[in-house]
Design a protein that fits this description.
This protein has one domain: Aspartate Aminotransferase, domain 1 (Alpha-Beta Complex). It contains three helices and six strands, in the order αββββαββα. This is TfoX/Sxy family protein.
Length: 109
Amino acid sequence: MAYDEGLAERIRQRLGADPVVTEKRMFGGIAFLHRGNMAVGVSGDDLMVRVGPDNTDAALARPGARVFDMTGRPMRGWILVDGAALTGDDVLGEWIEKGRAFAASLPPK
């Protein structure tokens, strides 16, 4: 599956040269990991965000957000945000920070 390289580049620009962030091809797209824990990624035209189980309901209440379900079983603590809802850099930045904050709360891998 191809992924939106433009969205991936916008994420790279937002994350800058953070030395604890790495990229890895995953889920048929690209993932951005914070100390080895996935924070955000791009799948097709959508943004994957790891928000954590306690933040899922609030995240799903935001425009363009839906349950992350690749296998027929929803993944708790993960959401997808429709690429059309990410036209503003401020909105994309908020989602990236939510993903990075959760990944940073986990022990490094």
